[in-house]
Design goal:
Elements (H helix, E strand, L loop, with lengths): L1 E6 L4 H11 L4 E7 L10 E2 L11 E4 L6 H11 L3 E3 L6 H10 L5 E3 L5 H17 L4 E8 L9 H14 L4 E3 L13 E8 L5 E8 L4 E8 L3 H14 L6 E2 L1 H5 L2
Parallel strand pairs: 1-2, 1-4, 2-3, 4-5, 5-6, 6-12, 7-9, 8-9
Antiparallel strand pairs: 7-10, 10-11
Bound molecules: nicotinamide-adenine-dinucleotide.
The site of nicotinamide-adenine-dinucleotide (NAD) has 25 residues, from helix 1.
């Protein structure tokens, strides 16, 4: 039986993970960590340092503020972690890389298989279309989302830059300047409203033709399924940083 600590257990994704794990025969949640206090089927602590139970893996859908405590716990106890929280700073991503030298760490801005396929297609399209197209990335999410652009939009930006194989500047706000679009920028646009689960679109706008690649998530379960799979995958792995590429190529 795989024992899980769920970080952010009282949030939207925490609830979806709790329900999904309840359906698994070989996995159980032994403790949760959340600033909110809710009555759940397992004990909930406000900090990792308070957790009493032993576990095989951590699943994290919480807030960047939670990361320090999570990494300290993970490294001290040797418990692998699947970090799904987005909006992390570059320093925080470096801290995950550092922790991965001693304990297996899984990190992905998007846990859906479809999005990871989209990223591969974006990289390919950027390789083929190269300088011939201007790239714009548009994402839409529900009105409760805190970070913008989404972690997935940043992941798609990285995929496009990798495909182009040259330095590009992400442009988040064109309203403050009046000038033509330079060739070396990628536009990043965020829409927030209602209960939109997650829409991502990458436009390659060339001369007289436009190629559009897109993904639409219809429920949060697509991310939960990926996270639960990743948690099972991480048990017993060697310390290093893992991502969805490792999971889908297993
Ligand atoms: N990687 C992915 O595929 C993916 C998919 C969906 C959501 N996410 C990310 O997961 C995170 C959570 O998403 P959500 O929709 O469940 O958000 P949410 O706001 O509903 O839930 C976050 C939970 O974390 C708790 N929390 C906040 N700060 C904390 C702290 N310092 N210590 C402990 N708990 C704390 C909150 O009380 C809340 O219950 C976000 O960063 C979101 O962008 C990632």
């Amino acid at each position: 039986m795989i024992k899980v600590i769920l970080s952010g257990c009282c949030g939207h994704m925490g609830k979806v993970i709790t329900n999904l794990v309840a359906e698994q025969v070989d996995m159980t949640i032994v403790a949760g960590v959340d600033l909110r206090k809710e009555e759940l089927s397992y004990p909930v602590y406000s900090e990792f340092s308070d957790v009493q139970e032993t576990a095989d893996v951590i699943i994290d859908f919480s807030h960047p503020n939670c990361l320090d405590g999570l990494l300290a716990y993970s490294v001290n106890k040797g418990v692998p972690a699947v970090v799904c929280t987005t909006g992390l700073s570059c320093c925080q991503i470096d801290a995950i890389r550092e922790a991965a030298k001693t304990v297996p760490m899984f990190f992905s801005g998007n846990m859906s298989l479809g999005i990871n396929l989209l990223a591969a297609l974006v990289k390919k399209a950027a390789q083929v279309l190269g300088d011939k197209a201007d790239i714009e990335i548009i994402e839409a999410h529900h009105n409760l989302k805190l970070d913008a652009p989404s972690g997935t939009a940043n992941m798609l930006l990285d995929a496009a830059i990798e495909g182009l194989d040259k330095e590009m500047i992400p442009e988040y706000d064109r309203h403050s300047r009046r000038q033509q679009r330079p060739k070396n920028e990628i536009g990043m646009h965020s829409i927030r409203g209602g209960t939109i689960v997650g829409e991502h679109e990458v436009i390659f706008a060339g001369k007289d033709e436009i190629v559009t690649l897109s993904h639409s998530a219809r429920s949060k379960e697509v991310f939960a399924v990926g996270a639960v799979k990743a948690a099972a995958f991480m048990v017993g792995k060697e310390p290093r940083l893992y991502d969805m590429t490792d999971l889908v190529s297993e």
